[in-house]
Amino acid sequence: MHSSLKLPMALFLACSLFHHGIIAELICEDLPTELCALSIASSGKRCVLETYIDGASSKRYTCKTSEVVAEKLSGYIENDQCVDACGLDRESVGISSDAFLNLGFPSSLCSPECYDNCPNIVDLYYNLAAGEGVFLPEMCAKQKRSLHRGMYGILSNGDAAVAGSIAPAPL
């Protein structure tokens, strides 16, 4: 292909892909249920997995658009690495702060793998925590300090003094 045609062809291809991206909207109700939880519609509203009973009295799932607005993202489906790193489950029904009641969840959410790499999940739980009167960055800082104190105690076989305390004098 002649070099003078390469640039216009590349520009045409890039524009057509960009145009296609604008037309294709992410609509929660169109998502398969296994991708619903932790996704965000093009409108910026979060998708939520809901249950319903069909005519045969069996429980089924459906993906719906919630009224919860994501602060920074739209048209986004969370990746499996973040779901795993943050200790979440795509089969979670609804959006609530109940996850904070699970003892292992705060440490997963506050882990560097989740907190530093999964802004969608952190944004969601930041807002849920705020609704409960908890400031997520402060909670994660306490979680980190607690982990360090615990590791310090394990590594020292419990013989070392906890930071800030006075060790008894040897006999």
Automatic annotation (TrEMBL):
It holds the Pfam family PAR1. The keyword Disulfide bond does not apply. Residues 1-24 form the signal peptide. It comes from Dorcoceras hygrometricum. Transmembrane segments: none annotated. InterPro entries: PAR1. It comes from the Eukaryota. The lineage of its organism: Eukaryota, Viridiplantae, Streptophyta, Embryophyta, Tracheophyta. Keywords: Signal. This is PAR1 protein.
